[in-house]
Each structure stands twice: as C-alpha cells, then as structure tokens.
Fold Histidine triad nucleotide-binding protein.
Amino acid sequence: MDSCIFCKIIEGAIPAKKVYEDEDLIAIEDINPVAPHHVLLIPRKHVVNALDLTAEDDPLIGRIFRAAAAIAREWGVDERGFRIVQNNNADAGQSVFHIHFHLLAGRHLGWPPG
Ligand code: 5GP
Ligand code: ZN
C-alpha cells in the first residue's frame, strides 16, 4: 500500500525505533506514547483492521499476542500488568488503517477507557 505509513515503516522508507521483528511482524515504539511503555505490534501484511481479517490470518494474531507477552516479560511488567489494545474505525479512534496492536504498560491503566 503506497500511502500506508506502517507499510512504509515496514519497508524501511520511514524510520522507527524497532524493538522486535520477525518474518511476520514488527514491534516499534509509538511516536506519541501514552504510557511509560508503549509499542505497536504490526503485521507485515497490510490488513486494514479486525473487519479485514480472514481465516488465513488466524495464526498471525496468535503470534502477535505471544510476541506482546514476550516483550511484556522483557520489560518486567508481566506480574504487575500490561494491556493489548486494537482500535477499529472512528468511534474507537483508529487513525492508521493498517492493523496494529498497542502494548501498554508502566502505569495503572484505567478501565473502562475514555
Ligand atoms: P490507532 O489510533 O490507529 O489505534 O493508533 C495509531 C498509533 O500510531 C498512534 O498511537 C500514533 O501515535 C502512532 N503513530 C502514527 N504515526 C506513527 C509513526 O509514523 N511512527 C510511529 N512510531 N508511530 C506512529
Ligand atoms: Zn499498510
């Protein structure tokens, strides 16, 4: 996708602070963090959001959650707590239309979110 900022980051055309990558996904620091720890887990495949997923993507979502858990363990927040969030369309505040999962930690995360 030519106009997609996350595809450009994945291609290396736009810089980002990478914390993890493998053949299916990358994890980068969010440019506008809302918690002491805030990374985005992004599949290399351009999927718009949850509405665009197919059965073929089922293993990918599992990998993303396991990568997020591994990063949370590295941060040492696994016992204290962390959150994985994925926004879909306007009411949820999705601003980048390439599916991604926010991994947040390092402070008390209120519930319900605003
Ligand atoms: P959404 O609101 O779509 O769930 O989340 C998009 C996230 O991407 C936001 O938290 C925003 O700060 C982050 N973001 C947008 N553009 C860039 C960028 O160019 N680089 C990085 N690292 N994060 C970005
Ligand atoms: Zn994309």
